[in-house]
Amino acid sequence: MDFPEILYRRMKSCHVGLPASHHIEDFTDGMIRFMFPVRCGRKMTVDCLRNEWERLRRLFADLLSSLHHLPDDASPEDLSRHFFEAIPFIHEQLLEEAANFLRCDPAAKSVEEVMLCYPGYYAIAVYRLASELYRMKVPVLPRAISEYAHSKTGIDIHPGATIGRNFYIDHGTGIVIGETTEIGNNVKIYQGVTLGAMYVEKSLQNTKRHPTIENNVIIYAGSAILGGDTVIGRNTVVGGNVWLTESVAPNSVVYHKAEVVIKNKKNR
């Protein structure tokens, strides 16, 4: 038996239906372009938007049809209807977040610039779509969509995380937000932040492993906050390169103290 036949037999024995990755990417990019036509580089007519809406609905139904195990024996049509009914609310939330990016970032000149250029905003937009599918208990697809955004931005947000309104990511590269993370409203995080678990073990699958970040918290670059029992209280500022495995009271300032020595070369 040659390797192609071995591979074929293994493929036949696989019980998990999976959509093609390029179809997932097409759907994800299509949804982002549809919600933010500025990314198309041209003005869209109402008829163009209606046609794209229907194309995306068909593509999504095809993606669902390729999955073997849908939740509670729901039909692809029912799931598709539920998902697309949620899109107007998701869109309003993302418009609010684009305005928040403009308020927070002195380098941003317009909401259109945020929608077109900001990887943190793109990652949040894709998260909002994937999170809706995750709550619907659609298998595989939410994670695949999230990992596509991860590959484009370097920002890893698990679709199972719970994230409130006006979430702001600055720069973003290297951010990790775990599955059971809970983030409140008006939270800001910077590049290299990890909201993770204390350790990885399969037996912890159905437990809260990741921290809770309450409203109005700022977490600066390079910090790691770990553990399901760790709560960062509201209005707290966490400085850069902080390692936290225990809770912090509201209205705190947490920082890593490091000694920096500057010498004049001539006086050494």
Can you tell me about this structure?
This protein is of the alpha/beta class. The protein folds into 2 domains: 18-154, serine acetyltransferase, domain 1; 161-268, Hexapeptide repeat proteins (UDP N-Acetylglucosamine Acyltransferase, domain 1, 3 Solenoid), CATH 2.160.10.10. Helices cover 42% and strands 12% of the residues. It is built from 7 helices and 14 strands. The chain has helices at 3-13, 21-35, 46-65, 76-104, 111-117, 119-135, 141-153; strands at residues 156-157, 162-163, 168-170, 176-177, 182-183, 188-190, 194-196, 212-213, 218-219, 224-226, 231-232, 237-238, 243-244, 253-254. Strands 1-4-7-10-13 form a 5-stranded parallel beta sheet. A 5-stranded parallel beta sheet has the order 3-6-9-12-14. Strands 2-5-8-11 form a 4-stranded parallel beta sheet, with no helix packed on it. Helix 2 (21-35) packs antiparallel against helix 3 (46-65), helix 3 crosses helix 4 and helix 4 packs antiparallel against helix 6. The model has no long low-confidence stretch (mean pLDDT 93).
What is the structure about, briefly put?
The chain has helices at 3-13, 21-35, 46-65, 76-104, 111-117, 119-135, 141-153, and strands at 156-157, 162-163, 168-170, 176-177, 182-183, 188-190, 194-196, 212-213, 218-219, 224-226, 231-232, 237-238, 243-244, 253-254.
Detail the topology: elements first, then pairings.
Layout: H1 3-13, H2 21-35, H3 46-65, H4 76-104, H5 111-117, H6 119-135, H7 141-153, E1 156-157, E2 162-163, E3 168-170, E4 176-177, E5 182-183, E6 188-190, E7 194-196, E8 212-213, E9 218-219, E10 224-226, E11 231-232, E12 237-238, E13 243-244, E14 253-254
Parallel strand pairs: 1-4, 2-5, 3-6, 4-7, 5-8, 6-9, 7-10, 8-11, 9-12, 10-13, 12-14
